[in-house]
Specification:
The protein is mainly alpha-helical. It has a domain of about 170 residues. Helices cover about 70% and strands about 5% of the residues. It is built from 16 helices and 6 strands. A two-stranded antiparallel ribbon has the order 1-2. A two-stranded antiparallel ribbon has the order 3-4. A two-stranded antiparallel sheet has the order 5-6. Helix 1 packs parallel to helix 15, helix 9 packs across helix 11 and helix 9 crosses helix 13. It starts with 6 loop residues before the first helix and ends in a 10-residue tail after the last helix. About 40% of the residues are buried.
């Protein structure tokens, strides 16, 4: 049955599935690592125990999410050599170095200091422990730096030449490769999205416990209230910043990838006298029109050109074989934007409640925050779909088509591995996610228990040796003074 499918389509579905699963964890841990650094700094500065309790509460969740992010990310690198070997051969001379730097610098930084952050507070002292926590936070950001740089180069390639004999992309200017035209905008937009994702997960967890305590007629702990307050501050401040960054990113995309913006806006036809902003419609690629369109006249021109009457080209100026699938891009973009404005609404609502003095006694705000807890995860996936599907039909935009990038594999082989990935991912990561949710279902308590390592020293993989058993049975000699 699998042999009847297209191998390239199955390979795309497999990579999309694995990267979507993976992206959820870094989108959470990038922000959570910085949040832990802030909590640890506040504890050292103020000595208020609630910050230490919150640190200990969230560091357990961070450890699990970080581990699942690492494991799910390893799989994707193998797919470059299996399903996408032609792409790896052609683009490897350019993207290989940044991906190696991500491992050698960012990941080693995270992994090297993670153990100190998790278990070293009582062993290395507060200064070194704080340094380790900051190193982990910086490592998560630095990892995003390299990965987004590679992906941005695939969107807006620069600093390379093409070998006429092998067709390989050869690096000519390393700085132009790393800091390609779309990289600064995509990095700012993605990292800010990660901070918002974390803020709404933290806020949703706090709101859950505020509602539970209210239902029981009890007052929530100081740690829970502080957690909700910090999350809502983050939402109120960062959400409008993210919308502004999204606007800048959109303008950059219009300059370098105009057909992606045309698909996002649903502009099949050119608009010489100002383009409408379509709020709703059903893209019809075959007829090259937006059916049942509902839009606001000239608003798209105002947003994209900052001029009501500015002309905007449509997909009628793009050859059919270079157009992205409009339906997926059109709707994923609207989901992302709708969630972004919903986040802004919750942030502004929290400011109003804070000003009125009932931030912790506003059950409808708490219900909204709880409902919005996973909104950041949905938004980053919708944004990723918009970006990646909007780049089609290219893997390296304008240079290497997706159909030319795939390995010469049979559809049955790709489909079988896809089915295996789906079953294993939902089993393994589903169990991990369930355990994280169980941890979140328990509120932070005073004197939150810390992560504990082996109290009797390192774990012996081979068990207790006979010599060790004899040493444990032998009575300790009692030394007298002067001996």
């Amino acid at each position: 049955m699998l042999a009847s499918f297209d191998a390239v389509l199955l390979a795309r579905i497999q990579f999309a599935f694995t990267v979507s699963f993976h992206f959820l964890f870094p989108a959470f841990t990038i922000g959570l690592a910085s949040y832990l650094a802030v909590l640890n700094g506040l504890w050292l500065w103020t000595k208020e125990h609630k910050y230490l309790d919150l640190f200990r509460y969230w560091v357990k969740i961070f450890a699990l999410a970080f581990a699942m992010g690492v494991v799910s990310g390893i799989v994707m690198s193998y797919q470059f050599g299996t399903n996408w070997s032609v792409f790896s051969d052609r683009a490897g001379p350019v993207i290989g170095a940044p991906m190696a730097y991500e491992v050698l610098s960012a990941f080693f930084l995270e992994a090297g200091f993670l153990g100190i952050m998790l278990f070293g507070r009582e062993r290395v002292g507060p200064a070194l422990h704080m340094t380790a926590t900051l190193a982990v936070a910086f490592g998560t950001f630095f990892s995003a730096f390299w990965i987004i740089s590679v992906n941005s180069w695939m969107q807006t390639p620069a600093g390379f030449s093409v070998d006429p004999d092998t067709g390989q992309f050869l690096p000519e200017n390393f700085w132009e490769i790393i800091f390609n035209p779309s990289f600064p905008y995509r990095l700012a937009h993605t990292v800010t999205a990660a901070y918002l994702t974390t803020a709404f997960i933290v806020g949703g967890v706090a709101a859950f416990h505020l509602l539970r305590r209210r239902r029981r007629g009890e007052r929530a702990s100081e740690a829970t209230r502080t957690m909700f307050s910090m999350a809502m501050w983050m939402a109120a401040i960062v959400a409008p910043v993210q919308i502004g960054l999204g606007d800048l990113h959109g303008l950059n995309t219009l300059e370098h990838q105009p057909q992606k913006v045309m698909a996002m806006e649903g502009h099949y036809e050119s608009h010489p006298d100002g383009a409408p902003l379509y709020l709703f419609g059903i893209p019809n690629d075959e007829a090259q029109r937006l059916d049942y369109a509902v839009g606001i006249p000239n608003l798209s021109s105002l947003i994209l050109k900052h001029d009501f009457d500015a002309p905007l080209a449509g997909l009628d100026t793009i050859p059919d074989d270079e157009q992205p699938p409009v339906g997926i891009v059109f709707w994923s973009f609207r989901i992302m934007v709708a969630l972004g404005f919903a986040m802004l609404g919750v942030g502004l609502w929290s400011l109003w409640a804070r000003w009125r003095g009932h931030l912790f006694e506003a059950p409808w705000l708490h219900r909204a925050a709880l409902a919005m807890a996973p909104s950041g995860l949905f938004a980053v996936i919708a944004g990723w779909i918009t970006t990646e599907v909007g780049r089609q039909p290219y893997t390296v935009y304008g240079m290497l088509r997706t159909g030319e990038s795939a390995a010469p594999l049979d559809a049955a082989a790709v489909g079988t591995s896809l089915v295996a990935f789906v079953l294993i991912y939902f089993t393994v990561f589903g169990a991990g996610t369930f355990y994280i949710l169980r941890l979140m279902s328990r509120p932070p308590i005073f004197d939150e228990p810390r992560l504990k390592d082996a109290p009797e020293g390192p774990i012996r993989t081979a068990g207790i040796t006979p010599a060790a058993e004899e040493a444990e049975r032998r009575p300790q000699a009692v030394h007298q003074p002067g001996e």
